Amino acid sequence: MKTKVIVSGGYAEEPNELNSKFFKEILKDTGDEVTVLIIMFARPEEVWNEKSKRCISQFETTKGDKKIKYNIANHDELEEQIESSDVIYVRGGTTSLLIDAIAAHPDFVNLITGKILAVESAGTYLVSDYFYSKSEGGIFRGLAILPVKTICHFEGKNEEQLDKCPGNLEKLLLKSYEHKVYFI
């Protein structure tokens, strides 16, 4: 069973036409009743509920007649939460926080098989093989779910940094609000 991975360059919670297309793409292949797991591990835990409201709002404005149940991921129940969800949405923030948090769940890659995985910014870096982060200062490894080397929030600068990445990987340059779909 294929996994649908939708990557966003960032700021997906901001209401605009490109982000509406991103959220419609997330829900496009789902049934009438959908369970969405929102992973906020790239942010401090004390802001998870507040920050998740903006992405829930984006889902709500693009869902049509679908009935959506939302869950906020927690570390203790993550595996069970993924198993019971149709869509796994990984919100952006601090990439190193997110990668460290997901690394504590070694079955993550297996658990998302057959699901819809939607990621933005730090989440896009998480699924990349390599990524360049200006804010974190260099080239870093992701989980290599996608064979790509990535820059999010791309503004036409630092593309040459990706030449430092080994291997013959697709170069993924995503401006804020842009998205791309993969099936793995």
Jot down its keywords.
184 residues, alpha/beta, Rossmann fold, 6-stranded mixed sheet, 4-stranded mixed sheet, 28% helix, globular
Can you characterise this structure?
This protein is α/β, with parallel strands linked by helices and 184 residues long. The protein has a single domain, classed as Rossmann fold (3-Layer(aba) Sandwich). Helix content is 28%, strand content 28%. It contains six helices and ten strands, in the order E-H-E-H-E-H-E-H-H-E-H-E-E-E-E-E. The strands form two sheets. Strands 3-2-4-5-1-10 form a six-stranded mixed β-sheet. Strands 7-6-8-9 form a four-stranded mixed β-sheet. The longest helix has 15 residues. It is globular.
Précis, in short:
The protein has 184 residues and is of the alpha/beta class.
**CATH topology, which one?**
Rossmann fold
How many H/I helices?
Answer: 6
Strand-pairing-aware structural class = alpha/beta
The string of secondary-structure elements, in order, is EHEHEHEHHEHEEEEE
Shape: globular
* Largest sheet descriptor: 6 strands, mixed
Give average pLDDT, whole number. Answer: 96
The total of beta strands comes to: 10
Using only CA atoms, what is the Rg?
A: 15 Å
Helix content: 25-40%
Number of domain units: 1
The named CATH superfamily: Class I glutamine amidotransferase (GATase) domain
What proportion strand?
A: 25-35%
Instruction: Please give the alpha-carbon distance between the first and last residues.
Output: 9 Å
CATH class membership? Alpha Beta
**Strand arrangement across the biggest beta sheet:** 3-2-4-5-1-10
**Which stretches of 5+ consecutive residues score pLDDT under 50?**
none
